[in-house]
Amino acid sequence: MAIPTDVNRTFDTSLVDFNVNASFSTTESDPSDYGAVNHATTTKTPDVQPTSLFEEQNQEMPAQSQTSVSPVDIGSAPKPPTSVQHLPTQDTYDQWASIYDTDGNMLQSIDDAELETLLPDFLAPALSSSKSSSTKSAQDTPTLSLLDLGCGTGRNTAKLLSYAWPANLLVEVMGLDFSRGMLDVARTKLRPLMHNSKDKSKEEQNISLRLECTDCFPTISHPSASPLPSVPDGIGLRPVDAVISTLVLEHIPLLPFFATLAALLVPNGLALVTNMHAQMGAVSQAGFVNARGVKVRGSSFAHTVEETVQAAGECGFEVVEVRERAMSREDVECGRVGSRGGKWVGVKVWFGVVVRKVG
């Protein structure tokens, strides 16, 4: 398995069929792009506020993954290429933050659908363990510590806060992200969940929330550094019982990702990781179109399921579960994704893995 050592080693994009009037799905690509020979013009543009526009793109396969994808529909003639701006991933997400939750991201919709069952299944063993882990006396309140690694705007942090936790359990939820823009949105979104005037506040229900802006994967830029992220307030981080990290892995080389995950977990701790499937990643990547019609991109890797499982094992994890998800006709017909999702029917777009840190 060839793992890039530089997160900025990404692949070039060839962008076609740009339609500013269509619905926007940030990771959605027109399968008619397969085989297109258009080359994007990289431009530098001033920072502007993003807008909800549709983008389509074609992307060459990264060197470390050689997954092939069969064309779903070849026939429409490509339109002139559109300019693309490659930015550091952190800058990309800072600019994307204001529309990240509202731009019709198809992959987020699939992730939400899968987590309806996967997240409760993941939390059940962690919850069971916390009930029996009181080490001082029978009167101690059991505690469960949870971390959302790369929490972004708090889409799944909210799921952790809203979970039906037992009244006698102390739940500590933390969200880490490197984008201040995304965390600003998360704070606004999550505040009502923590302070509901009609019911008890989350604090009164023994649920706490902490959000921190930090370099989540320090060994990428400093290979000799500790893989445990640091936070500036002096409180520091300690290993937690369970970690979720959703739609983050695309931007991180595999070994630094799982080394950080191992540092963040207690022995036998569990982690739930979801990501864009390599079949989709072969021709698509996360990004958005700004108000000037420029496609903004960070760095991305099309990690295969097999590579991901192998890297997890190399970093001291055992794999508990693997799920893969193809786009279905039902996803389109029921409105789970927009109509352009029809061009992805039959293509695997998502995968999730649950791993346990070997004690």
From TrEMBL:
<feature type="region of interest" description="Disordered">
    <location>
        <begin position="25"/>
        <end position="88"/>
    </location>
</feature>
<dbReference type="InterPro" id="IPR029063">
    <property type="entry name" value="SAM-dependent_MTases_sf"/>
</dbReference>
<protein>
    <submittedName>
        <fullName>S-adenosyl-L-methionine-dependent methyltransferase</fullName>
    </submittedName>
</protein>
<keyword id="KW-0808">Transferase</keyword>
<dbReference type="GO" id="GO:0010420">
    <property type="term" value="F:polyprenyldihydroxybenzoate methyltransferase activity"/>
</dbReference>
<feature type="domain" description="Methyltransferase type 12">
    <location>
        <begin position="147"/>
        <end position="270"/>
    </location>
</feature>
<dbReference type="InterPro" id="IPR013217">
    <property type="entry name" value="Methyltransf_12"/>
</dbReference>
<feature type="compositionally biased region" description="Polar residues">
    <location>
        <begin position="39"/>
        <end position="70"/>
    </location>
</feature>
<dbReference type="GO" id="GO:0032259">
    <property type="term" value="P:methylation"/>
</dbReference>
<keyword id="KW-0489">Methyltransferase</keyword>
<dbReference type="Pfam" id="PF08242">
    <property type="entry name" value="Methyltransf_12"/>
</dbReference>
